[in-house]
Design a protein that fits this description.
By secondary structure, this protein is mainly alpha-helical. It has helices spanning about 5-25, 30-45, 55-70, 75-90, 100-130, 140-175, 220-235, 260-275, 280-285, 290-315, 345-360, 365-380, 390-395, 410-420, 425-430, 435-445, and strands at about 190-195, 200-205, 210-215, 240-245, 245-250, 255. It folds into 2 domains: about 75-175; about 190-445, no CATH class. Strands 1-6-5 form a 3-stranded mixed beta sheet. It has a 3-stranded antiparallel beta sheet with strand order 3-2-4. Helix 1 packs antiparallel against helix 2, helix 6 crosses helix 10 and helix 11 (about 345-360) runs antiparallel to helix 12.
Length: about 450
């Protein structure tokens, strides 16, 4: 019986074709047109791409792999090189006193030199852009390129020492704040200053949800990213984005070499918090659900900023530390008129996401995408360079529940838990045991 069931619609379909052919002789070209149209409809129906929510990870991966072939991030090779470099560096610089203020001067000089290289690169790019097509660069440009290369080579020589100093400063401060276990800080604080991979994010178009991600080469040009995104979207009917990462949570973590200590130190602390959690229940469950990813990233954002600010206070008092989100108590909505408000990027992005979510929930997908693009253009006019603002953008940035792209209640709840905790260590010793979002609610209830 079960074997015969699928044959029924097929049999009827064949019979209908036969009937149409029988009447073709009587009805002439009208029947021919009808037959052609029916056949076309059937072919189209069989080739219709399934909606994004019906795509499995295997379906997506099969479509994405040919697009990104040769441009994927080789984590195994990077890990092998990073571990070898760390072993060599710690044998070369074993002295613990590297973490004192003399070490801070070495790091500060390094960051200043990095800033000079960035400025030179910017000037070189501007000079090239001003050249007429086919014109060779002049002596002034060649001199700047030579100077930039000299500075880059010098930076590479000093990078292992700078990394070691920062690692030991973060470790000492983490120990002072009570983040060690039986007097041992585990895992050791290690990281590399290097361009992180870029990150491909895919979301369905009809809702905001991270359904696939993949690490790609750190040196993808804007045109390469755009071409890949277009091809992936054409193949799968999804929303996609290839975004830069500030850090990469392997071990040792990979930290973007930005010429700003107020950025490098909190980012290094953020990534170490992830390494710390990896040996606790919360971190062990990072990949089990989007909700637990959000919990992990929110904890790392709150604790990483606080640890980073403490390192800056201990060793770089002339540097402005990051603002701690949990120290800002929730404010009642302002009564002032909208046009009189000072522009607030975080509020703007949350309002944008809320309206996009509302339109998508109502089935108005094209309207939601047009709305996000208009808001992106408004941001560009205000000086915020955002290449794409789409479902994939919010799916990625929404993982960080304290960030401007999130409307997740996890952020305010976690900030409230930190406000109630007597110390960073007490906060960490509470959240590291979380295995579900309900644990956060229970902790607040207590």
């Amino acid at each position: 019986m079960l074997m015969n069931t699928p044959a029924v619609p097929l049999f009827c379909f064949v019979r209908r074709l036969g009937t149409m052919r029988h009447h073709e002789r009587q009805l002439g070209w009208h029947a021919v047109v009808a037959a052609v149209l029916l056949a076309a409809i059937c072919v189209l129906a069989m080739g219709v791409r399934p909606p994004a929510q019906a795509l499995s990870e295997k379906d997506i991966d099969s479509a994405v792999r040919p697009v990104v072939a040769g441009r994927e991030f080789d984590i195994a090779r990077w890990e092998a090189e990073a571990v070898a470099a760390k072993v060599a560096t710690n044998l070369r610089y074993p002295a613990p006193q590297l973490a004192d203020l003399d070490g801070s001067m070495v790091v500060t000089a390094y960051v200043e030199q990095l800033r000079q290289v960035r400025q030179l690169q910017h000037e070189i790019e501007e000079a090239y852009a001003e050249l007429p097509a086919g014109t060779l660069p002049g002596e002034a440009i060649r001199q700047k390129e030579a100077e930039a290369k000299r500075l880059r080579d010098e930076l590479r020589r000093h990078q292992p020492l700078v990394e070691t100093i920062l690692e030991r400063q973060v470790a000492r401060t983490a120990g002072r704040l009570g983040l060690s276990t039986a007097g041992v800080l585990w895992p050791p604080v290690l990281f590399r200053l290097s361009p992180p991979p870029t990150h491909l994010i895919i979301s369905p178009r009809e809702r905001i949800e991270l359904i696939y991600s993949r690490d790609l080469s750190p040196d993808l040009s804007v045109s390469e990213r755009d071409a890949m995104e277009r091809e992936i979207e054409a193949r799968l009917g999804v929303s996609s984005l290839i975004e830069d990462l500030g850090g990469y949570g392997t071990y040792p973590p990979l930290i973007l070499e930005e010429p700003a200590l107020g950025w490098i130190i909190p980012t290094a602390a953020h990534e170490w918090i992830h390494n710390y959690l990896a040996f606790r229940p919360l971190g062990l469950r990072y990949e089990t659900s989007p909700a637990l990813k959000t919990l992990n990233e929110t904890v790392a954002s709150i604790a990483g900023d606080e640890l980073g600010a403490a390192v800056i206070f201990d060793y770089y008092p002339w540097v402005t530390p990051p603002e701690l989100s949990w120290k800002r108590p929730p404010q009642p909505p302002a009564e002032e008129k909208e046009e009189e408000r000072e522009f607030d990027f975080t509020r703007f992005m949350r309002e944008t996401r809320q309206e996009a979510e509302r339109l998508l929930a109502a089935g108005r997908m094209a309207e939601a995408e047009q709305y996000m693009e208009s808001r992106r253009q408004e941001l560009v006019q205000r000086g915020y360079v955002i290449r794409k603002l789409n479902q994939a953008y919010f799916a990625f940035h929404g993982l960080y529940a304290t960030g401007p792209g999130s409307i997740d209640p996890t952020g305010p709840k976690m900030e409230e838990l930190r406000r109630r905790s007597p110390s960073l260590a007490a906060f960490m010793h509470t959240v590291e045991w979380f295995t579900s979002p309900e644990d956060l609610d229970r902790a607040l209830g207590q």
